[in-house]
Design a protein that fits this description.
Strand content: 35-45%
Number of helices: 1
Helix content: 10-25%
Order of helices and strands: HEEEEEEEE
Number of strands: 8
Length: 125
């Protein structure tokens, strides 16, 4: 399973049509990392310096369309403040305004219930 996730991540990084977006620069000790968006593969999030999730909370990634409401994009946990999360499947990169991450109840949410700790603006292809 871990090997499959790493191979999937390498597919994102190896494809020249992947759109990379950095986040967390210019802030004091923020979560930082990169989001990689691909029209056929989906979204790859690699993050570091994440705050510890409180008991009963989990990280949730969101795809935020330009001018639209956030859509849930999967739950994940961090280990030592670092995380890798993949949303697999095709998407219209040109319609994505941002990728965000919030801390949500363990079961996840249908809409964000907290202030995003990561917001990566996506310019599109």
């Amino acid at each position: 399973s871990q090997r499959d996730r790493l191979m999937q991540a390498l597919s994102f990084l190896d494809d020249p049509s992947t759109v990379p977006v950095s986040f967390g620069k210019g802030q004091s000790i923020p979560p930082h990392g990169n989001v990689f968006v691909h029209s056929k593969l989906g979204v790859l999030l690699i993050a570091a310096n994440l705050p510890a999730a409180q008991a009963g909370k989990i990280y949730e990634m969101w795809v935020i369309p330009k001018g639209g409401a956030p859509r849930p994009a999967g739950l994940f946990q961090s280990q030592g403040g670092t995380a890798m999360h993949i949303l697999s499947g095709p998407l219209d990169v040109g319609t994505i305004g941002a990728i965000a991450v919030t801390l949500e109840p363990e079961a996840g949410s249908s809409a964000p219930t907290s202030t995003p700790i990561i917001v990566a603006a996506v310019a599109g292809p």
